[in-house]
Design goal:
alpha/beta, Rossmann fold, elongated
């Protein structure tokens, strides 16, 4: 039987059929294996390319965030993002850059999620946050400066192309955040900021004597009765209260650019500058109102020079900030004291850190200026002039007893006139940025300090009377003695002399100095007075008293330490680590021995949280100089960026010099470009 089966033709055909099926199965298995290997290979390549795309999109998002500012051309931002992706050797088919502004645009025009449902400004007036729902990029309760970059690339396949799949589209999205900024603009409004004002400035804005014989629109007392329109008198009266608007070079909606700094009177009430007849020249109606009422003081039509240039540049800088996505600004001025400006005064709900560009610009236009000096001169104060008048009357009256109690150049009549409180301005800005009611620890804190001179006054000491030291601030008595030629001291029966007797009689060993007062005029000295444990002067420290050396320059450096350093003192007392930039404005500041060095110190304190200048580190190490030869131990580290730079006009680190409006605008633009970005997710 077996023999018959083995030779059965049917069985032989079945055997051959099974062998053929095995070959087919092996062929199909081989094809499947090749397909599987091809799929794994293509997927691996896709993962590699996707990872490269993710890195490229992350880089592009950070680049886009760094480019975005208010009014940025989004075409340029997209190009910047595309360039970063191409740097990673990827050719993108599409790139989409989105911000809160693009969401607002879609909401207004009825695109994207609001397809076919536009929201006009007439029906939904600004602010948009009161009407538009929140999105990923628009968080109205806690604004952030988010930029979303999405990109697609077509990744070619290798083995999958054999089955007709030539490319696979990869897409990646990254959201980057430009750090929200809380920034303090700390502006010098001392009277020297008006000392370049002349009658020409009045004529240029239609507020001076009218050459056509028309009415003169100048505050009473600001025109000399003798016809001598002196620089000092115009400087003292340079702020003309008004209700106009100051143009800042911005293009209006009708396509016309308002010339920078001109007073804009909206003559026809259309909220646009329509040409020369609205530019504030003398063919317009006068704008002055109530020039003497401090509560109604309005600096809109400010013509003080050089401060007008400072104000114009500050306005342009404010417009570079991104208020829609969370930036805030506080305006601080310093003259006799540092003042942070609350937009609506203490009675209103607003706080000094402003979230609105319109509010910030209005506050700058109307409340910031060199204070009107009722004396009509820019470099004197009432205490000094009153003492001078009494002294002149005594001399002209034959020096009949009693001699005036306060002489024109005595301490009480000179120390009271200081008006460049750099330290007070820094302290006011620091307190505004770190106020518990307003503080945002996730924000980048930035302070920009601008001054045109040396520090010559500090905040007053606490709880002292008019006759006590510290009432006029920390002003060493001996720093005011030698003021050069002027009204002499003439004692009965003695020859005139220009140095008061008490300057030398009380301290014969003290070298008398030149102005500024309240400042030893030496940038390389540093004396210490404050107890950082309490924030108050150390009563046991002799440098804190009238016979000490602690002066306005030392005080300003202490305030810079407090605001900018990580540790304000070697004992570990914490500072506030605020990023600080300093601008020396005009030639006067570079001619002051302690002017530019102080501003460089402020920039040094605010660039990395440490003092990098070796000399100043030596002072701070133990409050004395241990290496007078100029050789410092290696522990002080590398020199700071400004160390060894002798030209006060040279930019170094976060210190800048500006001579006029053009260079000041360039400085503000440079500072704006150095703000920080970070990848959020």
């Amino acid at each position: 039987m077996k023999r018959l089966l083995l030779h059965n033709p049917l069985s032989r055909r079945l055997s051959r059929s099974q062998r053929g099926q095995s070959i087919l199965l092996m062929a199909f298995a081989f094809i499947a294996l090749v397909a599987f290997v091809g799929l794994v290979t293509d997927i691996a390549l896709l993962f590699v390319r996707y990872a490269a795309l993710r890195r490229a999109v992350d880089s592009a998002a950070i680049a886009a965030a760094g480019q975005i500012r208010e009014g940025t051309d989004y075409g340029e931002v997209t190009v910047a993002a595309q360039q970063y992706i191409e740097l990673h050797n990827l050719e993108t088919d599409s790139i989409l850059v989105e911000t809160c502004e693009t969401d607002i645009y879609q909401w207004r025009t009825g695109l994207g999620p609001w397809q076919g449902v536009p929201h006009s400004e007439a029906a939904y007036p600004p602010p948009v946050s009161q009407h538009m729902p929140e999105t990923e990029l628009c968080d109205w309760d806690d604004p952030h400066k988010l930029v979303r970059v999405s990109a697609q690339v077509d990744s070619p396949t290798t083995f999958l192309s054999l089955i007709g799949i030539d490319t696979i589209t990869l897409e990646a999205t990254s959201v980057s955040e430009t750090a929200v900024i809380d920034i303090a603009l700390v502006l010098d409004t001392s009277e020297s900021m008006s000392n370049e004002t002349s009658i020409v400035d009045y004529v240029n804005v239609g507020l001076g004597p009218n050459p056509d014989g028309g009415p003169t629109n100048v505050r009473p007392g600001c025109v000399s009765e003798t016809g001598d329109n002196s620089l000092e008198r115009w400087g003292g009266c340079c702020n003309d209260p008004g209700t106009g608007n100051v143009g800042d070079g911005e293009r209006q909606s009708n396509g016309i650019v308002v010339p920078n700094g001109l007073v804009w009177h909206d003559t026809n009430g259309n909220s646009m500058w329509d040409g020369a007849f609205e530019n504030g020249l003398r063919n317009n109606s006068p704008q002055s109102t109530n020039p003497y009422d401090p509560d109604a003081r309005n600096f809109t039509t400010l013509i003080c020079q050089p401060f007008k240039d400072v104000k114009d540049a500050a306005r342009m800088f404010i417009k570079r900030l991104d208020f829609v996505r969370g930036d805030r600004v506080v305006l601080v001025t310093f003259d006799r004291q540092g003042i942070p400006y609350d937009p609506d005064g203490d009675a209103g709900p607003m706080r000094p850190l402003m979230r609105s560009e319109a509010t910030a610009i209005h506050t700058l236009n109307t409340r910031i200026g060199v204070q009107i000096n009722g004396l009509g001169v820019w470099n004197r104060c009432a205490a000094n002039l009153d003492a001078l008048a009494e002294w002149d009357a005594w001399i002209n009256g034959g020096m009949v007893d009693p001699e005036p109690e306060v002489r024109p150049l005595a301490y009480e009549s000179v120390a009271a006139c200081g008006n460049t409180n750099v330290g007070g301005g820094i302290l006011a800005a620091n307190n505004s940025l770190t106020d518990p009611l307003d503080i945002r620890r996730e924000a980048v804190w930035v302070m920009i300090v601008l001054s045109d001179g040396a520090a010559n006054v500090t905040n007053a000491a606490d709880d002292v009377g008019p006759t006590d030291y510290g009432y006029h601030g920390y002003c060493p008595w001996w720093t005011f003695c030698d003021l050069g030629p002027g009204t002499p001291y003439v004692a009965p029966g003695e020859s005139p002399q220009f140095v008061w007797p008490e300057c030398t009689n009380n301290n014969p060993a003290q070298t008398e100095t030149q102005p500024p007062v309240c400042n030893d005029n030496n940038p390389d000295t540093r004396f210490f007075c404050l107890d950082w444990g309490t924030g108050l002067p150390d009563d046991s420290n002799p440098e804190c008293g009238s016979a000490g050396h602690y002066d306005a320059d030392d005080y300003a450096r202490d305030m810079a330490d407090f605001a900018g350093l990580i540790e304000v003192a070697p004992d570990g007392s914490p500072g506030n680590f605020i990023a600080m930039f300093a601008i020396a404005f005009g030639n006067d500041v570079v001619n002051e021995p302690t002017g530019a060095p102080l501003l460089r110190y402020i920039a040094d304190a605010g660039d990395n949280g440490f003092i990098d200048n070796n000399l100043q580190q030596d002072w701070r190490d133990n409050q004395q100089l241990d290496y007078l030869s100029g050789t410092y131990p290696p522990s002080f580290g590398d020199p700071g960026p400004c160390e060894g730079e002798s030209n006060p006009r040279a930019q170094c680190g976060q210190y800048y010099f500006a001579s006029d409006l053009d260079t000041l605008n360039e400085v503000f633009e440079e500072i704006a470009g150095r703000l920080f970005t970070r990848l959020s997710r």
